[in-house]
Input
Amino acid sequence: MSPETQRKTLRVVKIALLIVQVVIVVFLLGSAVMDFSSAVVTNEEKMSFDKWYGNWPTVFMITAVFFFFLFYLTRPRKPKEWKGAGLAVAFFISLFTEMFGIPLTIYLVAPLLGVDPKLFGMYESHLWAYLLSRTGIISLEAGVFMVMFLSTVLIVLGFLLLARGWKKVYQGGSVLVTDGPYARLRHPQYVGLIFLVVAFLIMWPTILTILLAPFLIVRYILLAREEDRELEKEFGEDFRRYRERVPPFIPLKRNRS
Output
C-alpha cells in the first residue's frame, strides 16, 4: 500500500470513528435530556423534596453523559493528568449524587437553619438563592433565576473553551498552537474546567464540592505550569516568545513582543 493510499485510508477511518462518536454523544445526550426532563417537568411549579431527590436513574445518566463529554474533550494521558481527572470525578460524582440522589448537605445545613430538611424542594435546594431569600433582599424565585443564569453562562463558556481548545490542539498535531483561543490564553482548556467547577458551586453548592473545589483548581494551575515547562523544552525560543505575549489564564492584557 502506497503512502498516499495509507493516508487516505487513515483519513476515512478517522472520519468513521468521529461519526460513531457523534452518534454516541447524541444518543447519550438525548437519553439524559429525556430522563432529566422527567425529573423536572411536573404539574407543580415547584417540586417537593420527595419528588426531587432519590432519582437515581438521573444521577447515573447525567454523570455518564457529563463524564463522556469531559474525558472526550480533555483526554488525560499522563499520570499527573489522570490525578487531576480523579479529583474531577470525585467532584462531579458527589455533586450529581447530592443534586438528584441523597442531599447530604441539606441534611446537615437544615438543622443549623432551624428548618426541616423536607422544606428543600427543587427551588430551595439552590442554597445560595435560598440563603439570599432568607435575608429578604430578593425572592426565592429571583435568586434561583440569578444563580441559574450565572452558572449557565459559565457552563457554556467552559464547554466552548474545552471544545475549541481541543479542536485546535488536535488539528495542530505536533506544532505549537498559538491561534484560536490560544491566541488569548495559553491554557483555555484549564480555564474551561475551572469555569465548570465555579459554575456548579454557584448552581448547587454542597459541602463536599466546596471542599474539593480549591484542590481541583490548584491542580489545574499546577498542570498548566507543568505543561508550560514541557512546551518550553520542546519548542524553545518559539514558546518563550509566545509565553511573553499571551497570559496563561486571564486575557486582560496581551503583552507585545
Summary: The CA atoms of residues 44 and 156 lie 28 Å apart. The chain has a mean pLDDT of 82. Residues 3-40 form the longest helix (38 residues). The chain has one domain: 42-245.
